[in-house]
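Good morning,

Attaching, inline, the backbone tokens for the sequence recovery test we're adding to the shared suite. The designed sequence is right after.
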């Protein structure tokens, strides 16, 4: 009975958002009220704790508000960057630059939906890639819904080693496992899940030119270009660099292959007349865009906010003196004998770094005061309803976690015994679904996965890898991320549609990871 009650808030969220198409605000508020009621009655929240029921509910609300604010630090500047790029003509300049690389807009879209999202996730994490890439894809011609799903699917392969390995490093802080052994256990799962995600991205990219269809061959090249370095780094170097360096090297390889293929096609005149006319039309359109809207801006200036962001993130993550300095200042808080609390490192968190990127990009692009203030005002207006939706959803997550409801679900799943490896990635995904973070999921369930494996006389390392991979896939369907991503493209109130589109590929990935875990164990 306790397990059914613990699952009820999640069921409510899914039914209301997907089945009844409620907005995240109302679905989250309803689920939050139900979660609090169940926590106080069935799970005696606050009875045997250093705080009472009232203090417990207050602590959850304050924690949820803090988390929602830290997410706003990312979404706000990311929206600001998007609107600034639109107002200054930088987006048009980037589109023209991509057209120079390839006349096929689908191939150019792969650079954004695949490599750009993987790079930003590998460098920054915290939902930054979707907030940046989804508006970019809309500007490139995608419908908002498909842009969000493409960005969410595109970035997920990098999540286990995101923010220079943070989710995996969190696991290593909990269990005594060799870093190389753990990263080697995670990589094969992501190799298979990544194929599903790449298939999803290719199908979505194909909607950009419906008559041409999905660019399967180019997606295959992009998949191999990323996962080749990714796999080698995970197997022989460790968890810090597979996503970051894999995306950089992969993008370079992909662009080189694209240029080589186009050069050969031009040399042998292999293009048919209609294809050649289409290519010339695209190139002509790109030239016109450069002349009319972006003649004053080169590619480096157009990408300035992204260049600044990646540079700042890499400096604060990879250069020890700068990393130490950026982590030296923390803002923390606590309530009720430290029962509730959190903190932030402002100089290390992606949010302030995005703000610096926004301002630096404006200076680099010589944006007018009206363009900068206009972008800031529009972004600020957009984040207000997003904050309310996030507050509701995070309240559900924290209520379930702090009252023991989330752990109850995991313990019930562990009762599967020998079949536990099949379910282990779903626990990882559950953690991310509820907390909004693969890192938080790993902190929440790594010791649980380890203990369950030992009790069942199973090798814990494959299950730890399955936990990390499942947590990464959970990023695709996490309400926090769905709300944040939808907000950046004007889909606030339609989050259920995003979740409905994202669930099938996520479910396929989790089933495959579970089957692999059973085989490995």
């Amino acid at each position: 009975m306790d397990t059914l009650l613990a699952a009820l808030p999640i069921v409510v969220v899914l039914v209301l958002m997907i089945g009844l198409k409620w907005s995240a605000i109302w679905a989250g508020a309803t689920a939050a009220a139900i979660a609090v009621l169940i926590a106080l009655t069935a799970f005696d929240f606050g009875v045997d704790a250093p705080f009472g029921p009232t203090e417990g509910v207050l602590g959850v609300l304050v924690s949820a508000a803090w988390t929602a604010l830290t997410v706003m630090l990312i979404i706000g500047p990311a929206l600001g960057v998007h609107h600034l790029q639109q107002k200054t003509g930088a987006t048009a300049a980037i589109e023209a630059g991509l057209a120079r690389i390839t006349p096929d807009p689908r191939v150019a879209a792969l650079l954004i939906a695949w490599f750009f999202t993987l790079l930003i996730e590998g460098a920054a994490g915290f939902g930054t890639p979707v907030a940046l890439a989804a508006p970019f894809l809309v500007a490139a011609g995608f419908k908002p819904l498909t842009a969000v799903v493409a960005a969410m699917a595109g970035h997920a392969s990098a999540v286990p080693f995101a923010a220079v390995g943070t989710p995996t490093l969190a696991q290593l802080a909990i269990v005594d496992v060799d870093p190389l052994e753990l990263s080697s256990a995670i990589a094969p799962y992501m190799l298979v899940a990544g194929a599903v995600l790449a298939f999803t991205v290719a199908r979505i990219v194909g909607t950009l030119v419906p008559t041409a269809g999905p660019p399967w061959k180019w997606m295959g090249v992009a998949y191999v270009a990323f996962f080749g370095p990714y796999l080698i780094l995970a197997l022989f170097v460790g968890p810090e660099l597979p996503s970051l360096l894999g995306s950089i090297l992969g993008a370079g390889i992909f662009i080189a292959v694209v240029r080589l293929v186009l050069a050969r096609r031009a040399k042998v005149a292999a293009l048919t007349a209609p294809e050649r006319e289409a290519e010339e039309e695209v190139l002509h359109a790109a030239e016109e865009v450069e002349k009319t809207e972006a003649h004053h801006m080169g590619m480096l200036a157009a990408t300035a906010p992204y260049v600044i962001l990646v540079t700042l993130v890499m400096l604060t993550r990879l250069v020890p003196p700068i990393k130490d300095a950026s982590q030296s200042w923390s803002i923390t808080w606590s309530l009720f004998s430290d029962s509730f609390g959190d903190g932030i490192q402002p100089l290390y968190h992606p949010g302030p770094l995005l703000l610096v990127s926004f301002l630096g990009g404006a200076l680099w692009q010589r944006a007018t005061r009206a363009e900068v203030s206009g972008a800031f005002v529009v972004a600020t207006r957009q984040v207000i309803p997003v904050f309310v939706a996030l507050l509701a959803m995070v309240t559900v997550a924290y209520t379930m976690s702090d009252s023991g409801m989330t752990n109850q679900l995991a313990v019930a799943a562990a009762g599967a015994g020998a079949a536990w490896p099949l379910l282990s990635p779903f626990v990882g995904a559950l953690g991310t679904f509820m907390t909004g973070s693969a890192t938080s999921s790993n902190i929440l369930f790594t010791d649980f996965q380890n203990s369950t494996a030992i009790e069942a006389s199973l090798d814990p390392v494959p299950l730890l890898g399955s936990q990390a991979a499942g947590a990464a896939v959970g990023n695709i369907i996490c309400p926090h991320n769905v709300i944040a991503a939808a907000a950046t493209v004007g889909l606030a109130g339609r989050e259920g549609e995003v979740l409905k589109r994202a669930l099938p590929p996520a479910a396929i990935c989790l089933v495959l990871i579970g089957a692999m875990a059973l085989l490995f164990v």
